[in-house]
Write a structure and sequence with these properties.
- The structure holds 3 protein chains of 3 kinds.
- Chain A has 12 helices and 8 strands.
- Chain A is 44% helix and 10% strand.
- In chain A, the strands form 2 sheets. A 6-stranded parallel β-sheet of chain A has the order 1-7-8-4-3-2, sandwiched between helices.
- Chain A has one domain: Thiamin diphosphate (ThDP)-binding fold, Pyr/PP domains (Rossmann fold, 3-Layer(aba) Sandwich), CATH 3.40.50.
- In chain A, helix 2 packs antiparallel against helix 11 (281-291).
- Chain B is of the alpha/beta class.
- Chain B has 2 domains: 5-188, Thiamin diphosphate (ThDP)-binding fold, Pyr/PP domains (Rossmann fold, 3-Layer(aba) Sandwich), CATH 3.40.50.970; 200-327, 3-Layer(aba) Sandwich (Rossmann fold).
- In chain B, 36% of the residues lie in helices and 22% in strands.
- In chain B, the strands form 3 sheets. A 7-stranded mixed β-sheet of chain B has the order 3-2-4-5-7-6-12, sandwiched between helices.
- Chain C is built from 13 helices and 18 strands.
- Chain C has helices at 128-137, 155-163, 169-173, 180-189, 193-199, 207-223, 227-232, 242-257, 270-281, 291-305, 349-364, 438-453, 456-459, and strands at residues 3-6, 16-22, 29-30, 35-40, 45-49, 54-58, 67-68, 72-77, 260-268, 311-314, 317-320, 326-328, 330-332, 335-337, 340-341, 378-382, 401-415, 418-432.
- In chain C, strand 13 (330-332) and strand 14 (335-337) form a beta hairpin.
- Classes of the chains: A alpha/beta, B alpha/beta, C alpha+beta.
- Chains in contact: A-B, A-C, B-C.
């Protein structure tokens, strides 16, 4: 088993990666952070219907992986999908509209937070069923192979989904047929309200290896570490070597969903949350960028402000947008 | 009026449709357990691997959920997959993929994607295969918006409907009766298409209407002959498609005869027969001269012993008895 | 600018929250992340943190009760800023508009489900088809004798009842529910029990109802134009039925309002007969068109050439129909109906024949749909099977004319000075002289005759 845990030295950073790439990574993480904070705020005001599962604190995983992909590559996401969708290039205006159930949303308000799709960006959807994206991503890998297209697919899933039977069925076929798929497991310690060590015997990477799928682990709060692991897996996929498995350890700052606040479900304590919050992936990357002289505090603050404005505009846009017409209830059931 | 045709079995008709469609459109692939090298447990897919190769004819591991899951993803990204699930009893293992993913993705994404997927699967009792290999679960899938459900009863319909299903951009459940793969009939040559959503009247009559799905056509026809001998001329209609259902044809016939019996091989309770009966009574109420009768399989898991199994399946004798009661 | 602090949404089902205690006081400086208050939602107590900064100004206190999610409970002010003067959050009192959370007890189901023995309906069992048929015939279905399972009254029982002569008064009276006094009264007054049953369906009749009927019939007897006939000549009567009454009214109206003139002529139908015979003998022909179909087609063709015959008078306007819909008069046991074939010029003879083969028998059996019995622009009525030659048919409704067709009869006819046997048919055209004059109407009839005699003129 390949246990390389990649970390980033300051010297490596400046010489290995172009500044545009690094700044783009930073910006994407900030977009996710600000977007999710805004969702928290809007949801708390009681104007967002349904459920919201926030990605706050896990930004480095989505961005580290997606920055290694082309626009035409596919991803599938989870119920906690805003991060992946934004990292792949999703439009905050259309996403926020979808969360509010407006017709200007990606799915015209008919899917909501957990089902957003953007085929032009290769986003085959967030999914409300735990593990639901695994089959779809693997199938996308199959079609790329059958049609001889240079297209790979990434399936994001969590430590909870690791125990769904579907994972083993599709990963087995991916390995058997050398499909161009990357399985990215975000181990954020909890599957809903149950810690991973109380639900998972053995480890994710060991299970993947058992099916002949090589794996890597990365510090999920170090965006460059994730990025390097992603490059390794993407290369394997594109050159016909088949699927790979990446485990990223990270942590979600907010509850499982918006109703999980404070001590409601009593499964974690403030101390644990504080510890992880001090390991903020954005702050860490900021420090790396500054130390490597890729950008200064004022440059990064300017990015922060620009992003905040973009998000604010997206929220206003969504709030002012119309709801879908009644006739839409019966549309799109059948092609 | 005379399309060239040959006499062949339902198995041959399906095989022919698969060959023709895979030739016509290179995006059509077929996947399932033992469908390639072995040609399928019911030998329906024989010859496909040799003609189209292992990239398009894929033998899979035993992973119903995974197979359908892959097919959904492939359908979203440019292929038109056909999945064979050996026995419809095993579709339970793929329920999430069929019901929560395939059926709903087009709607939830407001049309951004579509799932041109066909799931071919075998239903029907009588094979002494016992409870877990003998069910007829068409009611479950007909209930789900976003899915289409087809049940051909004869070779010509099998060919024409399967071709339509493969060309349809929606997820379609194509249910084949395992007991009638060897049944012979005319198969029209060439690009023979039967549009989805049209019922077919096999026999005309004034006394009563028998609506029957899939292989239930055959006991119905036998019953019709028996009834004709005592002066009761029945009309026999095969809906062919359960979703979408050709209500209009069924209702017109109910208005004409005033007496209706619906026969389907699903369990008696909460089945396809109940839905059709409800639709007919809503639109033909004033023309019904008797309550609508339904005949399904007995409300028991299918037993193994042949003498017991035969008691649970709708029979010609039972149909005759019920029609006589209707018109009494 | 004062920043609003609102009651947060803390759970899927939460729509109001109760402040348990404020953890800061009015005037305290607040940073993002500071815990402001603890709130009780329907699930648990949660501490809520600030997302903005400012000086706290509390608006809603715990003793104000539960407030709706989203309502303002405090402000965060800039230094020196005064709080907005706004009404505090409206407490959620036991609102009369709020739906009750208690399950409404379902009313006891008193239907016959599973308790058939206890439920005794006052009416006999009957099928919807029977009741519909009875309504069409103007009969009381409860008077029928049911021959279906468990005595169910079926459609055939209604038809049987309609065909029967009225039962003798005494016997029939027994089927109507009456008090003994009422029964004695009805019997002695000779009141028709069917009339009673129709007038008071399902009721148990008392003396009052009988006396009402007696008074009315006496009044009617005094007013009737031919009282003597009604009293002295033995007769039996039955309800005319809805269809009959409708026909009666329409015929009378037609006859009174238009100016009917009937023209007759004799057409040589030999070619037409030969056409049918040839088709009948040809094993390859799939359809042998009926005379009705052939006549409909050729008449439609003639109408296209003579549009005034396919028109109607609407007050001071002449309305020309743009399509030709031919009605064919059909006798049913209840009366005359006219099923219509639409857009005849667009259809081939085979299509018309197939359509009529399906429609006419159904109309005769009384199973035509209402839509199929309206919408005609010209009517053809054929009494040939009754050996009728010429007659004076009455125009149907608002149409301009009606063509009566007589029997096909072989006759000697002089052609080029020689007697020959030809199959002849009399045509009787009644037309509305308000709309069209004799000349044009005759020209139309002549064309029809020509089409019958020389089918190839309209077959191509």
């Amino acid at each position: 088993m390949d246990e390389t845990k990649s970390t980033t030295a300051v010297v490596e950073t400046r010489s290995d990666w172009p500044p545009e790439l690094l700044l783009a990574m930073y910006e994407r993480m900030v977009v996710i952070r600000r977007f999710e904070d805004t969702v928290y705020d809007v949801y708390s005001r009681g104007i967002m219907p349904g459920l919201a599962h926030l990605y706050t604190g896990m930004e480095a995983v989505a961005v580290g992986i997606c920055m290694a992909l082309n626009e035409s590559d596919n991803i599938t996401s989870t119920h906690r999908g805003h991060g992946h969708l934004l990292a792949k290039g999703g439009d905050p205006k259309r996403m926020f509209s979808e969360l509010l159930g407006k017709s200007s949303g990606y799915n015209r308000g008919k899917g909501g937070s957990m089902h957003i799709v953007d085929m032009s960006l290769g986003i085959l959807g967030a999914n409300g069923i735990v593990g639901g994206g695994l089959g779809i991503a693997t199938g996308a890998g199959l079609s790329a192979k059958v049609r001889h297209e240079n297209r790979i697919s990434v399936a994001f899933f969590g430590d909870g989904a690791l125990n769904e039977g579907l994972f083993y069925e599709v990963a087995n076929m991916a390995s058997l047929w050398k499909l161009p798929v990357v399985y990215v497991m975000e181990n954020n310690t909890y599957g809903e309200y149950t810690p991973a060590d109380k639900s998972t015997a053995g480890s994710g990477p060991a299970r993947a290896e058992a099916m002949g799928i090589p794996s890597r682990s990365a510090d999920g709060n170090d965006v460059l570490a994730v990025y390097q692991a992603a490059l390794w897996a993407v290369e394997r996929a594109r050159t016909g070597l088949g699927p790979s498995f990446i485990e990223c350890e990270t942590y979600r700052w907010r509850g499982h969903h918006m109703g999980d606040q404070g001590d409601t479900y009593g499964y974690r304590n403030a101390e644990e949350i504080d510890t992880w919050m001090r390991d903020c992936p954005i702050e860490r990357f900021k420090a790396v960028l500054i130390a490597a002289e890729v950008a200064g505090e004022p440059d990064l603050a300017a990015i922060d402000r620009r992003v905040q404005q973009e998000i604010d505009e997206a929220v206003e846009f969504a709030k002012n947008a119309p709801y879908p017409e009644s006739a839409e209830v019966y549309q799109h059931v059948y092609a | 009026m005379s399309t060239p045709e040959r006499i062949g079995t339902i198995r041959e008709a399906i095989n022919e449709a698969l060959h023709e469609e895979m030739t016509r459109d290179e995006r059509v692939i077929i996947m399932g357990e033992d469908i390639g090298v072995a040609g399928g447990v019911f030998k329906v897919t024989a010859g496909l691997l040799d003609q189209f190769g292992p990239e398009r004819v894929i033998d899979t591991p035993i992973s119903e959920a995974g197979i359908v899951g892959l097919a959904v993803g492939a359908a979203m990204t440019g292929l038109r997959p056909i999945v064979e699930i050996m026995f419809n009893d095993f579709t339970t293992l793929a329920s999430d993929q069929i019901v929560n993913q395939a059926a709903k993705l087009r709607y939830m994404t407001a049309g951004q994607t579509q799932i041109p997927l066909v799931i071919r699967t075998a239903m029907g009792a009588g094979r002494r295969a016992a409870a877990q290999h003998s069910q007829s679960l068409q009611a479950w899938y007909s209930h789900i918006p976003g899915l289409k459900v087809i049940m051909p009863s004869n070779p010509a319909d099998a060919k024409g409907l399967l071709k339509s299903a493969i060309r349809d951009d929606n997820p379609v459940i194509f249910m084949e009766d395992k007991m009638t793969y060897n049944l012979k009939g005319p198969i029209p040559e060439g690009d023979y298409i039967v549009p989805l959503g049209e019922a077919r009247t096999h026999r005309q009559g004034d006394a009563a209407t028998i609506i029957c799905t899939s292989s239930m056509l055959y006991p119905a026809q036998e019953a019709a002959n028996t009834l004709a001998n005592v002066g009761i001329e029945v009309e026999i209609i095969d809906p062919r498609c359960l979703s979408p259902l050709d209500d209009a044809t069924l209702i017109r016939s109910a208005i004409k005869t005033g007496h209706v019996l619906i026969v389907d091989e699903g369990y008696q309770s909460y089945g396809v027969t109940a839905e059709i009966a409800a639709r007919i009574q809503a639109k033909a109420f004033d023309y019904l001269d008797a309550p609508i009768y339904r005949l399904g399989a007995a409300d028991v898991p299918v037993p193994f012993a042949p003498s017991l199994e035969d008691l649970t399946i709708p029979s010609a004798e039972k149909i005759v008895e019920l029609v006589k009661e209707l018109v009494a | 600018m004062a920043i609003e602090v609102v009651m947060p949404q803390l759970g899927l089902s939460m729509d109001s929250g109760q402040i348990v205690e404020w953890l800061k006081r009015t005037g305290d400086p607040i940073q993002p992340g500071d815990l402001l208050m603890s709130v009780e939602s329907d699930k648990s107590t949660v501490e809520v943190e600030a997302v903005e900064r400012g000086r706290l100004h509390i608006v809603t206190q715990p003793e104000d009760g539960a407030v709706p999610v989203g309502s303002v409970i405090a402000y965060l002010l800039a230094d020196g800023e005064a709080p907005p003067v706004a009404a505090p959050a409206t407490p959620v009192a036991a609102s009369p508009m709020a739906p009750s959370r208690e399950a409404v007890p379902i009313a006891e189901d008193h239907s016959a489900n599973g308790r058939e023995g206890e439920y005794r309906p006052s009416r006999p069992p009957s099928s919807p088809a029977a009741r519909r048929r009875a309504a069409e015939l103007g009969l009381d279905w409860q008077q029928a004798t049911g021959t279906g399972p468990a005595g169910r009254i079926k459609e055939r029982d209604i038809l049987a009842m309609a065909a029967q002569p009225a039962a003798p008064v005494a016997g029939a009276l027994a089927t109507v529910k009456m008090t003994p006094v009422a029964e004695r009264l009805a019997r002695s007054a000779g009141i028709d029990p069917i009339e009673l049953a129709r007038r008071f369906p399902g009721q148990r009749l008392g003396r009052d109802e009988i006396e009402t009927v007696i008074r009315e019939s006496v009044r009617r007897a005094r007013q009737t134009a031919a009282p003597e006939t009604a009293d002295t000549i033995p007769a039996r009567s039955e309800p005319a039925g809805r269809l009959r009454s409708l026909i009666a009214e329409r015929m009378a109206v037609s006859h009174l309002t238009n100016a009917p003139v009937t023209l007759t002529t004799e057409a040589d139908a030999t070619e037409l007969v030969r056409l049918r015979a040839t088709l009948k003998n040809d094993p390859q022909a799939d359809v042998v068109p009926s005379y009705n179909a052939l006549l409909a087609k050729l008449v439609a063709r003639a109408l296209v050439e003579h549009p005034i015959m396919n028109a109607y008078l609407d007050g001071d306007r002449i309305v020309y129909w743009e399509t030709v819909n031919i009605g064919t008069a059909v006798d049913t046991e209840r009366g005359l109906v006219v099923p219509v074939v639409r857009d005849v010029p667009a259809k081939s003879v085979q299509e018309i024949s197939r359509e009529m083969a399906e429609l006419l028998p159904r109309a005769k059996a009384g199973k035509a749909l209402p839509d199929e019995l309206i919408g005609g622009t010209f009517t053809i009525t054929n009494l040939g099977t009754y050996d009728i030659d010429a007659f004076t048919p009455i125009i149907n409704g608002a149409e301009c004319a009606i063509l009566g067709v007589g029997r096909l009869v072989d006759k000697y006819v002089v052609i080029d000075g020689q007697p020959q046997v030809r199959t002849m048919m009399v045509l009787s055209l009644t037309f509305d002289h308000r709309l069209v004059d004799g000349g044009p109407a005759a020209a139309f009839l002549q064309r029809v005759k020509q089409f019958i005699e020389t089918p190839y003129l309209w077959l191509v």
